[in-house]
Each structure stands twice: as C-alpha cells, then as structure tokens.
Design goal:
This protein has 422 residues and is an alpha+beta fold. It is 38% helix and 20% strand. The strands form 5 sheets. Strands 2, 3, 4, 5, 6, 7, 9 and 10 form an 8-stranded antiparallel sheet that branches. It is elongated, with a radius of gyration of 25 Å.
Length: 422
C-alpha cells in the first residue's frame, strides 16, 4: 500500500483505471529541473506539429511516429541547437510525441464525425506562457516512491509529496502538473477492480429526480433543497481587487508577475471550493440512491443570457459529469431526460399541463386538481417520472434505453483529472 494525498479525483474508465492527484512541494533545484522538462516536452510537441504542417503544405504524407521520434529526439540530441534535450528523461519526450499524435487523431475523428461533440480545431503550438504545463512518466522512466514517501523522478530527484490516503495498487504512470497558480501536482493512474468498487456502495432501492437551478443549487424529488454556495459571487470583491492591482502593474515587470499569481490563486480558491462541494454532494447522492434522473440542460445556451455568471458559478455541467462517472463506477443508474420536457408546466399530481410560467413564479396552483405546488419540487418529481425509473424485485432500477454515463476527455490521453489545493 502506498500512502497518498488529496483524494481520488475522477475516473477514466471504471472498468480499468482511476486517477489520483496529490500536491507536490519541489525544492528550488527541482523546480528548475521541472521547468526544463516542461520546456523540452513543449519544444518536441511544437516540432511534431510543425513537421506535420510542413508535410501537409508540401503535399507529402504525414510522418509516422517512428520517423518523428528518430528525427525530433534521437537525431536532434546530436545537434548543437537541440543538444539540451538530453538533459531530461527520454520518456518525457516520447510521451510528448504521443500527445501530439493523439491530438491529431482526435482532430481527424472530429472532422469525419467519428468523435462525438463539438468540432475540434487542429493542434496549435504550445507556449511557455500557457497556464498549465505537464510532463508524463511511464513505467519505462523508472520513477519510484521512496521509503520516506517522496516521489523519485528521473533527472529531477526525490520530490516531497503531501499524502492523504493509500494508493490501492502500484501506479502505471504519473503526470507532473504545474497550474496557473504555480502549484505542482502528481497525478497517478491506478488500475481498479470494478467488483470491489460496486461492493463499497450500500444497497438501496431509492430513486430520485434532481432539478438544478439558481435559487437553490439542486432540488430533489423528495422535497430536499440544496442551497447554492455561490462561490464566485462571494469572492467577487477579492477577485476585483486582485485584478485591479494587476492592471496597474507595468507589463513585463516582476511586480506584474506577482500580481498575476495573486489573481490566479484567488481563482483557484473559488475553483477548488466549488469542486469540493460538487464531489461531496455527488458522492452522497450516488451513495444513497440506486437511480438518479436529471435534465440535459443546455448550459452553453444559458451561459449566453443575462444569467451567465450565475450559471457558470453553479457549475452544473461539472456536477452532472461527476454523477455520470460515479454512477458508472459504482453500478448506479443515471438517466438524462430531454431539455424540452415541460417539467415546470406539468402538475405532478394529475399530469395536466398548466402552461409556461415566468421565473419569478415559485409556487402555483393546478387549475385541474387544485394542488399547490412548489415549482422546483414539482419539476424534480416530473423529472423522476419522465425518466421512467422503476425498482425491480431485487432492488435494481430498470428502464428501457437508459442513458449511459458520459466520459469526458480532459487530461492525459482522455483521462480526466481533477485535484484540489492542499
């Protein structure tokens, strides 16, 4: 058992892998070595993109991965212009090439329609000023965890890690990440046992519907209302002050760099608090209910209205994404109903559609049966009904055509990664 930190974050494929993220505290010399690794990986990635673009403009076939590895790494190390590539682990450079190849595969799959979701743009050149930088070490790099609990990385050294729990098995790879606030994280990929994960969840036959909103973050079909923390709204005064100080600093100065870090840290505090809230609530709902129904909201559309800031502050997409992968991991059922379902217009008692109502109307009386409804609770009940969730004799929810939990593709090779500050 390996000791670990900052908690399990998100699952990539519940049948095989999870990602654990932990805070790193490198020493000054190690930070310099990591900066070299980030820079070399970025240069190799940019060289790969340039080689592909040059071949396209010249009408030649795209170079293969083997050709790129030989020309951009092996042969480049022998030149005076790229000799410094030998200062970092060769595995880091090879993984950077893999990232470039993966980016092009996703781009072409998006063009042909093989990849669902919005169309992707072709890979762009990376900048040393990018907010997020990362390098990945696979087992070939021979990284290890020392007896004292440090992460020993090739050509970087033993880096201090803040552990908070034990890794269940030996990790297959580790990605070192530096975020916009200057924090360092180690993200481990772990193989998991799906049967063991499902056994950890208590047996239950409860099913619920969830109505997401702004007055309350979520209202359940049971009548429970979850207040919206409004993390961004509460931090607006601090954020405005930090941004104002940044705007007054001279561009290119050290004081401006310090002010930029201050703004980034203020934003990460908001992001971390919101993510922690989403994790706690989603885990509780998954633990207590066998089936969950939610609306498939058009968050992108709502974000173009006057409610944009409040919509982004709520973070509905992230919350539903957490419900999705946790339901898939722990053997629960998540159902998404259509966004055009009239859940706020239909009486949950008699089923009569009573017509649209302004957002200011929080309670209404059904004209057919006379029942007084709380708008949000009524909508949550209708979401549960529209999902068609039912409980079988063995306690498992059944319904025709259940919508499978969705996977996102952020992080390394489609493995979502999230972490929070220490």
């Amino acid at each position: 058992m390996f000791p670990v930190t900052e908690g399990v974050v998100r699952s990539y494929d519940p049948r095989t892998q999870l990602r654990y993220a932990f805070r790193l505290y490198p020493e000054p010399g190690q930070r310099a070595a990591l900066a070299r690794a980030f820079g070399c990986a970025r240069v190799v990635f940019n060289d790969a993109v340039r080689a592909r673009e040059d071949a396209r403009k010249a009408g030649r076939p795209s170079p293969t991965a083997g050709e790129l590895s030989r020309s951009l790494i092996t042969e480049a190390k022998r030149t005076s212009e790229r000799s410094w590539l030998g200062e970092v682990s060769a595995v880091v450079l090879q993984q950077s090439l893999r990232d470039a190849e993966s980016a092009y595969r996703n781009f072409f799959a998006s063009l042909t329609g093989a990849r669902k979701g919005p169309k992707l743009r072709p890979p762009r050149f990376k900048s040393r000023k990018d907010a997020r930088q990362s390098v990945r070490f696979t087992a070939n790099a021979r990284w290890s965890i020392t007896d004292s609990g440090r992460l020993n990385l090739p050509k970087i050294g033993a880096v201090k890690v803040k552990w908070s729990r034990s890794l269940p098995t030996t990790p297959t790879s580790v990605t070192v990440i530096k975020d916009a606030a200057g924090r360092y994280f180690a993200s481990f990929v772990i193989d998991t046992d799906p049967a063991a994960d499902a056994a950890r969840m208590p047996d239950t036959d409860q099913v619920i519907g969830i109505d997401l909103g702004l007055t309350h973050f979520a209202v359940l079909s049971t009548g429970e209302k979850i207040d919206s923390p409004r993390f961004l709204r509460r931090a607006e005064k601090k954020l405005k002050k930090a941004q104002r100080e940044l705007s007054r600093k001279q561009k290119g100065s050290k004081n401006r760099a310090k002010a930029r870090l201050k703004v980034a840290r203020a934003h990460t505090q908001v992001t971390d608090a919101r993510r922690e809230f989403h994790h706690q609530r989603s885990t509780k709902l998954i633990s207590e209910n066998q089936g969950i129904a939610v609306e498939d909201l058009s968050v992108a559309g709502l974000a173009r209205t006057r409610l944009a800031k409040s919509v982004h502050d709520a973070g509905w997409s992230t919350f539903v994404g957490m419900l999705a992968y946790k339901a898939q991991r722990y053997g629960r059922t998540l159902v998404k109903i259509g966004r055009f379902e009239p859940t706020s217009q239909t009486c949950s008692t008699c089923g009569v559609k009573d017509g649209p109502k302004p957002l200011g109307v929080r309670e209404w009386t059904c004209t057919a049966c006379g029942v007084v409804h709380d708008r949000d609770v009524n909508a949550a009940i209708n979401i549960k009904t529209a999902a068609g969730l039912a409980v079988s004799a063995c306690g498992a929810p059944v319904r025709p055509g259940a919508v499978p939990a969705q996977r996102t593709e952020t992080g390394s090779h489609g493995i979502p990664t999230e972490s929070r500050a220490a």
